[in-house]
Design goal:
By secondary structure, the protein is of the alpha/beta class. The chain contains 13 helices and 8 strands. 49% of the residues are buried.
């Protein structure tokens, strides 16, 4: 596909993703936050609509680690986790999420602050979760930035490895992104990188070749003691090329959803928000002792 067509496709997908995010947020705004405050799993039909960020939750023997959810760039916790968070809470996990990387002139579209600063926010939040639950380690599940460079920086440079048991990334841009060529183009146009670093530094940090990415990937992909799962889609148009999401090292499982279900057509945003094949792999990674095969039937499980 010619570069200009790939770029157009990326922009079109981004617009569709934004529409999906806004629609999902409007649908879940009234139910999920209220239920999350009570810690009770509400229902709309058969769909669980709340139950996370319950600070009185105490982990069970079956699920001893609290789960921390990290959204991606241009996103927020309510819109990203409206499906997965209440499902995990209903299964007995203590589930927590936060909004990080806020910029005052883009309310609701978070994850755009400098990644080093955002990693500090994640560090403080993990400490809060550990103190509240009385546990020693959390499991992190993140989408895009929140599943790759952000938690990996926390693990590698902020002593986070001692506090994390599992890191599960949904479409994580672990080694920087070309954004279907748009990121590469930004590197070639004078002044663009400077403008990005001043206006949306979290975006600049994630482009291939950024100072942040060079520092992050100056160390091995993984740290000892942490179990890693990377869940990707071949149709990713943002964290590209999709194979750059994969990690090397011990205790790593790299998964491509189309290898589990050829009918899965999710792209970058859908993989993190609504893809039940991906969600099944998340649940397997959180509880490997009770893992079950992931197939196209997982869409209906």
């Amino acid at each position: 596909m010619p570069p200009h067509k790939r770029s157009f496709r990326a922009l079109a997908c981004a617009a569709s993703a934004l529409a999906l995010t806004m629609t999902a947020g409007a649908a879940s705004a009234s139910a999920a936050p209220a239920d999350a405050k009570t810690g009770k799993a509400g229902k709309a039909g058969k769909a669980v609509t709340g139950g996370w960020n319950n600070w009185s939750c105490k982990p069970s023997a079956a699920h001893p680690n609290p789960v921390v959810l990290l959204h991606g760039t241009w996103a927020n916790q309510a819109d990203t986790w409206f499906a997965l968070a209440p499902e995990l809470a209903a299964k007995g996990y203590c589930v927590y999420s936060l909004d990080y990387g806020k910029l005052p002139y883009m309310p609701g579209f978070n994850g755009q602050g400098p990644l080093v600063k955002s990693a500090g926010e994640v560090s403080a939040f993990v400490d809060k979760v550990l103190k509240s639950t009385g546990t020693k380690k959390v499991d992190i599940v993140g989408h895009s930035q929140g599943g790759g460079p952000l938690p990996r920086y926390y693990l590698n440079f902020m002593n986070g490895a001692a506090k994390v048991d599992k890191l599960i990334g949904l479409a994580p841009d672990n080694h920087g992104s070309t954004a279907s060529g748009l990121g590469t183009l930004a590197r070639k146009v004078p002044g663009v990188s400077k403008a990005l670093s001043l206006s949306v530094p979290g975006v600049e940090d994630q482009i291939v070749g950024s100072a942040f990415m060079k520092k992050l990937n100056s160390k091995p992909d993984t740290v000892p003691g942490v179990k890693y799962t990377v869940i990707s889609t071949r149709y990713d148009e943002i964290a590209t090329p999709y194979k750059s999401q994969q990690l090397s090292g011990k205790n790593v499982r790299n998964v491509v959803v189309q290898d589990l279900c050829k009918l899965d057509v999710s792209e970058h945003i859908a993989l993190g928000m609504v893809d039940r094949v991906a969600f099944h792999e998340v649940k397997n990674a959180l509880d490997p002792a009770h893992a079950t095969p992931t197939t196209c039937a997982s869409f209906f499980s």
